[in-house]
Every structure is written in structure tokens, then in C-alpha cells.
Design a protein that fits this description.
Blueprint: H1 7-14, H2 17-24, H3 28-40, H4 44-55
Helix pairs in contact: 1-4, 2-4
Length: 59
């Protein structure tokens, strides 16, 4: 079963093209780990920071 993406993470990802591209290139296990991290984020700025870090990854 595919895990549901946290809403705030999805919105933040949609606003950052580089992060979305990096996320799309990840393995299913990597995506699962990122979504688990996103579920633990408590603030909008924290989510933005997580997504910005994804955008800095080399694809």
C-alpha cells in the first residue's frame, strides 16, 4: 500500500520545482523516509526548510 503524502509537504513541494524533481527521482524507500520526516515537522517554516533541503540534493 502506498503511503499518503502529508498535505503541508505536498503544498511545499509543489512550490519548489527543484525539490519536486529531486523527490520524483528518489527510490520508494527514500520517499518513505522523507515523508516520515515531513510528518514530524510542526511548523510551516520547518516544512519549507525540509523541502528547500530536498531542492539542494543532486539528482
Amino acid at each position: 500500500m502506498r503511503e499518503e503524502m502529508p498535505i503541508g509537504f505536498g503544498f511545499a513541494l509543489a512550490e519548489n520545482e527543484k525539490a519536486m524533481s529531486s523527490f520524483a527521482k528518489m527510490t520508494e524507500e527514500e520517499k518513505k523516509q522523507v515523508m516520515e520526516a515531513a510528518r514530524s515537522v510542526q511548523t510551516k517554516s520547518g516544512m519549507r526548510s525540509l523541502v528547500e533541503d530536498l531542492g539542494k540534493l543532486e539528482g
